[in-house]
Design a protein that fits this description.
- The complex is a heterodimer of chains A (339) and B (250).
- Chain A has 339 residues and is mostly beta strands.
- A 4-stranded antiparallel sheet of chain A has the order 3-2-1-28, with no helix packed on it.
- In chain A, strand 22 and strand 23 form a beta hairpin.
- In chain B, strand 16 and strand 17 form a beta hairpin.
- Chain B has 250 residues and is mostly beta strands.
- Chain B is globular and about 55 Å long.
- Chain B has 2 helices and 18 strands.
- Classes of the chains: A mainly beta (339), B mainly beta (250).
- Chains A and B meet through loops of A and loops of B.
Chain lengths: 339, 250
């Protein structure tokens, strides 16, 4: 064998071995609001691929069995900054819905109706019902996950946004940006139980794993409201500091630590849920919104809207290891273990 | 052979360019309608409100001290139903809803101003022609983030810190009305009426309006109010004959 052939053979063999050995335990999925696509990140190679998914992709969640991704799609995309809006086509309501992406097949297999302009949603424990915030309807819609039929819409106040199911699957919390409230809905009866006043422009919701408390980000107050779930009352408001715009949450599995993205504040905060004190603060990128933890909780991923990238943050050193390109205006991030 | 292929490709590319040029050239110019001043007439009238006056409510701006300061720490009221002399209803948007189909009106080049002043939108109700520029200004010493919520036009939002340059936007299509909010101050609301002709008006404190220079024809004139809803009336405009119509909300 000639030396050049030997080297090539070795390289090819190494590549083959690397390829065979490489099987990440999970992938990171990013919904891109601007480009209407889905970025899939390999957390080992730190590379990404982006596939088309629909228009204005925002809320993103895995199915309970982890085989599908559900993505809120909307035909009412924002006009890109600097464009002459009078040259753009009108909104396309036919593009509204919940897109269903098959992970194994690597493609969008279906889109079901999800009410008008769906933005964020949660999924029932049995995977049969979507709980969708519909801005136009100022309500929380119960959608049959197989047919897309709207079963009921409960009023939430203007501009509903965040939706979250309690860990026991019994309560649904939905925020109203305009009213500064949380609407609490009984999942079984689909009836509103209570509206709880929180701070201005509430966005994200996180429950402790035992369901005893819920945390709400109040973007315009730079605070987090803590709700006692059995009492359905705000028991504490945590100030975060001027200039921070708390948005999304990621909680550790044991519930001891809550990470909070701060939008234009550029930082992620770590909150100790026993003391409700901020224990760490570190800059991650431009306007981080959606955030997610790796399964080993050593790495945090943040979607940075204006810079079109995903920050990979090493939590031990609180440093950004890499910024991985995404589609335009990344919005939500989830981590889904591979089977 | 290779040269032949290259030459053919260049020829094809050249042809495509020519085709594109021809396509551009062949686009017919837009013919705008100009009413004949000799026969056009004005439609005038008054919007009256005879219902109960809701008590005006103080807007709480205590979430932002700079907004309170911008108003000299004096109370600011939310007054969706604002009446003046002889029950005239202010802030009603009057427009020609139908009767001008097939006529294209040139969008004015002049901008329509929507200011953010004292942590309120000023004015609260505006009318604009489709494709006419809207000038969004921040006169406050506080950041605003304007967000119209159209259904027939593209959504956009603009964060404007103090001293930020004005932002200019256009709406492509008719939409009555587009709600507007500020993402930072939840009490700030305005409405924009987008129409494709110049025949619209927003009533002042006396409730009066004037639609100038309508060509003779049959029209539906509509009036919209943010809490009282919409009313319409059929109007016949004869050549050079001014018409008066009134609307009353109870």
């Amino acid at each position: 064998m000639k030396p050049r052939t030997a080297i090539l053979t070795l390289v090819a063999g190494a590549a083959l071995l690397t390829g065979c050995a490489h099987k990440p335990g999970y992938y990171v999925y990013v919904s891109n609001e601007g480009s209407g696509d889905l970025t899939i990140v390999d957390p080992v190679k730190l590379t990404s691929t982006t596939v088309p998914i629909g228009k204005r992709a925002r809320g993103i969640h895995p199915s309970p069995d982890g085989k599908l991704l559900y993505i809120a799609l909307s035909g009412s995309p924002l006009a890109p900054p600097g464009t002459d809006e009078s040259t753009l086509p009108p909104p396309d309501k036919s593009a509204d819905g919940i897109g269903i992406y098959d992970i194994a097949a690597g493609k969008l297999i279906k889109k079901i109706p999800g009410g008008s302009d769906p933005e964020q949603f949660a999924i029932s424990a049995d995977g049969k019902t979507f709980y969708v915030s519909n801005e136009d309807a100022a309500g929380l819609s119960f959608i049959d996950a197989s047919t897309g039929q709207t079963l009921k819409t409960d009023p939430t106040g203007r501009e509903p946004e965040g939706v979250m199911l309690s860990p026991d699957g019994k309560l649904i919390f939905a925020t109203s940006e305009d009213e500064g409230t949380i609407t609490v809905v009984d999942a079984a009866s689909q009836n509103v139980l209570k509206q709880i006043k929180v701070g201005r422009r509430p966005r994200g919701i996180a429950f402790l794993p035992d369901g005893s408390k819920a945390y709400i980000t109040n973007e315009n107050d730079a605070t987090i409201s803590v709700i006692d779930v059995p009492k359905l009352e705000v028991v504490q408001t945590i100030p975060l500091g001027a200039g921070l715009k708390p948005m999304g949450f990621a909680m550790t599995k044991d519930g001891s630590k809550l990470y909070v993205s701060t939008g234009r504040g550029k930082k992620v905060l770590a909150l100790d849920t026993k003391t409700n004190q901020v224990t760490a603060s570190f800059e991650v990128g431009e306007r981080p919104w959606g955030i997610a933890l790796s399964p080993d909780e050593k790495t945090l991923y943040t979607a940075n809207g204006p810079s079109n990238d995903l920050s990979v943050v090493d939590l031990a050193t609180q440093t950004v290891l890499k910024k991985i390109p995404t589609g335009n205006r990344p919005w939500g991030v989830i981590v889904v273990p591979n089977p | 052979m290779r040269y032949l292929i290259v030459a053919a490709a260049l020829l094809a590319a050249g042809c495509n360019q020519e085709a594109k040029k021809a396509e551009t050239k062949s686009a017919p110019p837009v013919e705008y309608f100009h009413p004949d001043p000799a026969t056009a007439a004005n439609v005038t009238g008054k919007i009256t409100y005879r219902g109960a006056r809701p008590s005006r409510k103080i807007i709480s701006m205590d979430a932002d001290a700079k907004c309170e300061q911008a108003n000299g720490n004096k109370p600011v009221y939310n007054e969706p139903i604002l009446t003046g002399k002889a029950d005239g209803l202010a802030n009603a948007f009057v427009y020609v809803q139908s009767g001008l189909e097939g006529k294209k009106f040139e969008p004015p080049k002049e901008t329509v101003l929507l200011d953010q002043k004292g942590c309120m939108f000023v004015p609260r109700i505006i009318g604009i022609q489709a494709a006419q520029p809207l000038d969004v200004k921040n006169s406050d010493n506080v950041a605003h983030n304007i967000r119209p919520m159209p259904k027939n036009n593209r959504q956009w939002s603009d964060e404007q810190p103090p001293g930020a340059p004005d932002a200019v936007h256009k709406f492509a299509r008719t939409e009555v009305m587009i709600p507007v909010k500020c993402n930072v101050h939840e009490w700030m609301h305005a409405w924009i009426g987008v129409v494709e002709n110049p025949y619209y008006a927003v009533t002042g404190p006396d409730g009066s309006f004037e639609l100038k220079g309508l060509p003779p024809g049959e029209y539906t004139v509509a009036v919209w109010h943010e809490t009282l809803g919409q009313q319409t009336k059929q109007v016949h405009v004869a050549a050079s004959q001014p018409v008066a119509i009134d609307f009353t909300y109870q």
